[in-house]
Amino acid sequence: MIHPDTEVRTVSAQIGNGVFATAPIKKGTIVVVRDKYDTCLSQDEYQHLPQPMKAAMETYMYHDRHGNLILSWDHARYMNHNCSSNTMLTAYNIEIAIRDINPGDEITTEYGLLNIQEPYDLCCNCPNCRERLRDDDIDRYGPIWDEQIRESLLMIYGTEQPLIGLLDRNTRNRLQQFCDGEAAYSSVMNLKWRLNQTGSSVKS
Fold this sequence. Notes:
By secondary structure, the chain is of the alpha+beta class. It has 4 helices and 12 strands.
């Protein structure tokens, strides 16, 4: 589920829709929680969908670290990529604001954390645009993203959190232990889709 102070608006004819803040969202705020109502399909389940359903869903789905395809049930699915995004997916099943977001700002994320299947050109037109999204971006930029996320996670319990009640007990415990210095930070490298259990290669 996405933060309640958000709405869908048109970004441009080229990009289409995006998600925008309707009130201030502070750095360290949980912006999206992966919850039980999000659709989670295995590779096999997805491949057996009727073609019209696959075509309609594939634009908005991403792969988790197990290779499952995830589709947000609400407008979180409309979040666009930006190479200087203001939120990032974490290894704690949440997307967190890594800087303050003002009313009217588009809420953007980093597609390099979503286990893309094929490289493709970007059209975010941001000042530091990478111009092309690659399937090894998480390996190249993971340490930079980790620093941004780690700093923001440490602000969680000092920031208003409308979505924190949606976290499952395990996630809440992991976050609390990290913030209390009782557990190590869980890197975004843990989001990477790696070899499956049979040892065969899986694209990432």
